[in-house]
Amino acid sequence: MSRTDEIAARLRDVRTRISAAATAAGRAPGDVALIAVSKKMPPTDVVAALAAGQLDFGENYAQELRDKRTAIDTVAAAGSAVAAARWHFIGPLQANKVKYVAGKVALLHTIDSIALLDEVARRTPAGAPQACLVQVNVAGEERKHGVALAELPALLDRFGAHAQVRCAGLMLIPPLGEEAEASRPHFAALRALRDAVRAKPRPNVDLVHLSMGMSHDLEVAIAEGATLVRVGTAIFGERPST
Questions:
Q1: Is the dihedral of CA 72, 74, 76, 80 positive or negative?
Q2: Number of domains in the chain
Q3: Is residue 241 a part of any domain in this protein?
Q4: Does residue 242 sit within a domain?
Q5: Is 30 exposed, middle or buried (0-12, 13-18, 19+ CB in 10 A)?
Q6: Cα–Cα distance for residue pair 20/25, rounded to 1 Å
């Protein structure tokens, strides 16, 4: 089996899992969008996934995203029938890397501080607001990125100070665990938090999305209300160690 065929088959399997999980949860399969996490994988893998109908891709590193997008654009310019990818930035974002992301991705999943939000707003070109999610440290892990629960309201309020950013929902990465069910309390907590904070109207904030769930626990995430699942290994296989 070619690499292209392998990726297409893996994508079919993941889509089947998403559809079955949504149906089991009493939801429409179309309510859940798949983000193929292509970090550390070559541009040729993205091209193969695009050929199989996948449009949304997630990257964790700002410069890798920049370079990979350029490589795929080069393939398209050479005459290959490559659909336009929708890029999501899903990794921790340093202030000095915002220039590679702001205004250049469909959705930025990892806003976790007022300072970072201000820098994204500053770097986003006028007239095209950057859609964002706020990453929340639901479990209160000391070394995990994400805004603390007590600081979330102030961060959401800050969106109202900028015309160049919009908040479309919340995101989390649960504590690492082998069992999918271990993630359920964290997914449920994010959903409950979203429902609670959106009771207060805020300018430039419309908390539609919950970005949660990966290869091993996407079914649990969908059962708990995920609208975006971030799947890498189940589509592309194990990532290179370097």
A1: negative
A2: 1
A3: no
A4: no
A5: exposed
A6: 9
- Torsion over CA: 133, 139, 144, 148 (sign): positive
Return the CATH number at 93.
3.20.20.10
The DSSP-derived string for 84-117 is: PPEEEE-S---GGGGGGTTTTSSEEEEE-SHHHH
Q: Which of 66, 91, 100, 99 is nearest to 173 (CA)?
A: 91
Average the pLDDT over each of 64-78, 108-122, 178-192, 206-220 and give the range with the smallest value. Answer: 64-78
Q: pLDDT by residue (tens digit) across 125-164?
A: 998 999 999 999 998 888 889 999 999 999 999 999 999 9
Quote the domain boundaries for residue 66: 3-236
The alpha carbon of 93 is separated from its chain's Cα centroid by a whole number of angstroms, namely 13
**Could you tell me the pTM of the whole model?**
0.95
